[in-house]
Write a sequence for this structure.
């Protein structure tokens, strides 16, 4: 019984505390009542408990290493495609609120595979 109460209080602590520390390598957005309020930068940010939420993302250059993809050319020779994707978030609002990351990466992968493989 007490373990459920303790876990509830731990989950509630982020909503109750009126401060949020945004680290130097992060930027974010403040949502008030589920709607965008403003962009937030690094520092100690104040928020209204239970009404505001601050979501953050990294604003440093990040690198992704997708798995290698084996392809076969038209003359039946196998090749291996290995890629490195580097990105930097300049606008936290666009990244957090409008970009569907799964869709973005699937479209990127589709572009890469269609670029190197000729379809019939």
């Amino acid at each position: 019984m007490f373990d459920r109460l303790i876990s509830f209080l731990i989950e509630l602590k982020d909503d109750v505390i009126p401060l949020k520390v945004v680290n130097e390598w992060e930027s974010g957005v403040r949502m008030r009542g589920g709607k965008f309020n403003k962009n937030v930068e690094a520092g100690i940010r104040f928020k209204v408990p239970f009404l505001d939420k601050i979501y953050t993302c990294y604003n440093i250059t990040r690198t992704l290493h997708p798995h290698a993809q084996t392809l076969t050319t038209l003359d039946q020779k196998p090749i291996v495609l290995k890629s490195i994707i580097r990105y930097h978030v300049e606008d936290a609002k666009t990244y957090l609120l409008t970009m569907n990351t799964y869709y973005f990466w699937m479209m990127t992968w589709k572009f890469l595979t269609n670029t190197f493989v000729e379809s019939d």
Remarks:
- The first strand starts at residue 19 and ends at 22.
